HTH cro/C1-type domain-containing protein (Bacillus thuringiensis YBT-1518), 117 residues
Amino acid sequence: MNLGERLKSCRKKSGYTQTYITEKLKIHRGSLSSYESGRRKPDYETLSRLADIYKVSVDYLLGRSTDERLNAEQDKQATEIGKKIEQLISKLSEQEQKKAWEQLEMYVQYQQTRGRK
């Protein structure tokens, strides 16, 4: 399951409509629709807020964990790391940002497959 599918699944499991989520996050409905369809990826702050609303971990949404729950210390550490990564990438041009996110995703996927062996 990819990020978009997990976002949609969590929203439906929670019984929320797209309208409710977009009002809660103060984003356009088209943005949420794009996240759920996989056409766009939310920034880390939005992803973190979605995880809070759905009561799951960011790692779960990103597919790095099959366990929806996250303890407080892990959550704090993941949030700090995510913010630092986002701050670093935000200093790049839009094209460089896209490339950096793609590289980061490939690295995470590589680490996940390496850990399964």
